[in-house]
Design goal:
By secondary structure, the protein is α+β, with helices and mostly antiparallel strands. The chain has five helices and 13 strands. The longest helix has 11 residues.
Length: 231
């Protein structure tokens, strides 16, 4: 980050690397929890079986990947786990339930009870990943042309009720598909509905590094602001 600078305010393509991409999807995962959906505190509450993301985007809850972080044969209540699409080809396909939240919603448990040693079960995601795409990361940068390559996000500016997203970020500005200079002290913002529909390219570099994993992916346009907004 030596010589890093802020950017003028504007809208630009944004590429998330696999690590920060995983943090993006990790922040989104609670929106799929059935109890939040039932209470209407998820921005996805009324979107089951509707298009919520760009075609070709698959977001999967899969605790059955061999030796992957977050994998387990059963949940905190002893129910078997299974691969479950959350978003399939851009369409919202389902939510995550434990037994208690499933009874309240009039459905069946999806095997997603989480618990600690001294806590009662509650619904949540075991292992979520964005499905791998066909593009090499360098190909994504070349196709985008110019924009921001995110290597670190910070803060907690994510409202899952409204879908509003605002996070501090560092990274690299790229031109003609090549890194030009490091960037810091900026804020990325938008609404998750727009961001999900704006994912236009997904990389082929998926590695299950943690319980939430992601390949590189490109969002066509995010609002960038920061100290350089007036320059």
């Amino acid at each position: 980050m030596l010589g890093a600078r802020p950017l003028p305010k504007g809208t630009a393509p944004v590429v998330f690397d696999p690590i920060e991409g995983a943090r993006f999807w990790s922040g989104l995962a609670p929106a799929f929890v059935g109890d939040s959906v039932r209470r209407g505190v998820s921005f996805l509450s009324r979107d089951l079986d509707r298009v919520v993301a760009t075609p070709g985007l698959d977001l999967v809850e899969d605790p059955c990947v061999d030796r992957a972080p977050g994998s387990r044969p059963f949940d905190g209540e002893g129910w078997p786990t299974s691969r479950r699409p959350l978003i399939e080809n851009g369409v919202l396909r389902g939510f995550l339930y434990d037994s208690r939240s499933a009874r309240r919603a009039g459905t069946a448990s999806t095997g997603n009870a989480l618990r600690g040693y001294a806590s009662r079960p509650s619904p949540g995601a075991h292992a979520v990943h964005l499905g791998s795409g066909p593009h090499h990361p360098e190909q994504i940068l070349r196709a985008a042309g110019r924009g921001l390559y995110v290597t670190h996000v910070m803060g907690f500016g994510l409202n899952l009720v409204t879908g509003d997203y605002s996070r501090g970020a560092n990274g690299w500005w790229f031109e003609n598909g090549e890194f030009a200079f490091p960037v810091h002290e900026i804020t990325l913002s938008g609404n998750l509905r727009d961001l999900l529909r704006g994912v236009s390219m997904i990389g082929n570099d998926l590695i299950h590094r943690s319980s939430t994993s992601s390949p590189t992916f490109l969002v066509e346009g995010m609002i960038i602001s920061g100290p350089g907004a007036g320059s």
